[in-house]
Write a structure and sequence with these properties.
With 468 residues, the protein is an alpha/beta fold. The chain has helices spanning 11-21, 68-91, 105-114, 123-131, 135-146, 181-184, 188-209, 228-235, 257-265, 280-285, 292-304, 322-335, 365-378, 409-416, 449-454, 456-466; strands at 3-5, 29-37, 40-48, 53-61, 157-164, 166-167, 179-180, 212-220, 244-250, 270-273, 308-315, 339-344, 382-387, 398-402, 420-424, 429-434, 439-444. 39% of the residues lie in helices and 22% in strands. A nine-stranded mixed sheet has the order 13-14-12-11-10-9-8-5-15, with helices on both faces. Helix 7 runs parallel beside helix 16 and helix 12 runs parallel beside helix 13. The relative contact order is 0.11.
């Protein structure tokens, strides 16, 4: 059942909250009305189960001197808080993130601190009292904010993102627009030619605007699905002297000594090797065609070349209960990569897994996430970025951890929306941040490789116009 809001601009966020309480749909209709008289806002929620109708009314006081945008934000938060309290009472449960439905909880709290509304040390208290966030999650946000000291707000600093939306095979939990190599093998060289055309135009733009490239990130997909020749063709065009240059290797079955040598030759210093799990029966179940031996071998190779390595794990994969997840995390700790990212499974519409969730044991997932946080911090890892996605089991989150000072600046910049991003390639999204005005704009490239190839001149023109 969907919520109906008379003020339609709040409906999407309030529907997201309903979905967190009732993932399969609410067993009653929900109607929201609001009115404003002077500084008093009235929020009315009407619940109808087909037999009975009940009305819940709450009053809020609008602070003085708000801009129209801040007034809208205040109302949205107030209405969501009201809805949360009503649904929590009806469903007789609470949510770990309370009334928050947004992707970036740290960003929201940082902005409150920067506006002078709160002091940083009371962030956990504000999250718990004003948004009903549980204590563990509130403290996690505070810890992450303390670990994000690399943030620099300067509109001349930009991050360069290059997208290779191709994988060797498709994992059944994945909802990204990424092509299996077998379906686009005959187009890869042409795609690279078009990507390089856009990249050269971007290099002229960077010089013209006197931008300073802070980090470079080549993602996907799985960029190391490219051949050695294709990788070198791409990397030879990138010659910015950055201290952080990341390439997602992701799938261990795409990593070879020759490819790592090419990455090192062109000053890449960070890579990802993503097990997702060390249970091989799960790997087969999710269509991730790699073995533990390939993961271990790829990691040992990366150590030879002194790469900073991130390794991803997913809590809630089909067929996995708490014990299996614990063994995977413990195996990861034995390898001791500099970065570990713990994702909570998100079952989105674009994923093959959406068709059959019978093997997903959602009740264990909160315990998995808690275990990962506790054992990683016991072993010297600290949380440094966080984001949430729709349809994550239990309304949980993804958290990146680091040790020995090795945060990934690109992850912080992009998740906290503090730096512009120039996106190159199919599916890449450019983001322009105006720090003084506290606003941002986005400009996506077309999503599909065929469209990108056919419309490359349009993509270049749009990019130049967007950053002009």
């Amino acid at each position: 059942m969907k919520i109906v809001c008379e003020s339609y601009e709040y409906e999407k966020d309030m529907q997201d909250l309903v979905n967190l309480f009732y993932p399969e749909g609410a067993p009653f209709s929900i109607h929201h009305k609001d009115s404003t008289l002077g500084s008093t806002i009235t929020s009315t929620i009407i619940i109808n189960d087909g037999l009975n109708e009940k009305e819940y009314v709450k009053f809020f006081t609008l602070p003085n001197g708000l801009t129209p945008l801040r007034e809208k934000s205040f109302k949205k938060g107030a209405f969501k808080n009201h809805l949360y309290q009503v649904l929590s009472a009806i469903a007789k449960k609470t949510l770990p993130w309370g009334s928050l439905t947004g992707i970036r909880p740290c960003k929201m709290m940082r902005e409150m601190v920067e506006r002078g509304e709160i002091k940083e040390h009371i962030v956990p208290e504000v999250l718990m009292k004003e948004f009903f966030v549980d204590e563990k999650k509130a403290k996690l946000v505070f810890e992450i904010m303390k670990n994000q000291k690399c943030i620099i707000k300067n509109d001349k600093l930009v991050d360069l993102f290059i997208n290779i939306p191709i994988c060797p095979t498709r994992c059944n939990y994945c909802s990204f627009i990424s092509n299996e190599l077998c379906s686009v093998a005959d187009k890869v060289d042409l795609y690279l030619d078009c990507l390089l055309k856009e990249l050269r135009a971007v290099k002229e733009l960077i010089a013209e605007k006197s931008y300073i490239i802070r980090t470079i990130y080549i993602g996907g997909g799985t960029p190391t699905v490219l051949t050695v020749r294709q990788l070198e063709k791409l990397l030879a065009e990138i010659n910015y002297p950055v201290s952080e240059f990341t390439v997602e290797c992701g799938r261990a079955d795409t990593i070879t000594r020759e490819k790592l040598e090419i990455l090192k030759k062109y000053n890449v210093n960070r890579i990802s090797i993503n097990p997702q799990t060390f249970c091989e029966s799960t790997l087969k179940r999710i269509g991730r065609k790699q073995t533990n031996k390939q993961i271990f071998d790829a990691y040992m190779l990366a150590m030879e070349y002194d790469f900073i390595v991130n390794m991803d794990m997913i809590a809630g994969l089909p067929g996995e209960k708490l014990g299996i997840f614990k063994r995977s995390i413990n195996t990861l700790l034995e390898l001791s990569p500099q970065n570990i990212t713990v994702h909570t499974l998100s079952i989105k519409n674009g994923a093959l897994l959406k068709e059959d969730t019978s093997q997903v044991f959602g009740r264990d997932v909160p315990k998995m996430v808690d275990y990962a946080e506790e054992i990683l911090q016991e072993n010297g890892y600290k949380p440094y970025y966080i984001y949430r996605q729709k349809h994550q089991i239990g309304g949980l989150e993804n958290v990146g951890y680091f040790r020995d000072g090795h945060v990934c600046i690109f992850n912080i910049d992009s998740m906290e929306d503090v730096s512009s991003v120039i996106g190159v390639g199919a599916g890449a999204i450019s983001k322009r941040v105006f720090n003084l005005e506290n606003r941002l704009e986005r400009e996506p490239n077309c999503k599909f490789i065929n469209d990108y190839i056919a419309r490359i001149d349009e993509m270049v023109a749009k990019k130049i116009k967007f950053f002009s």
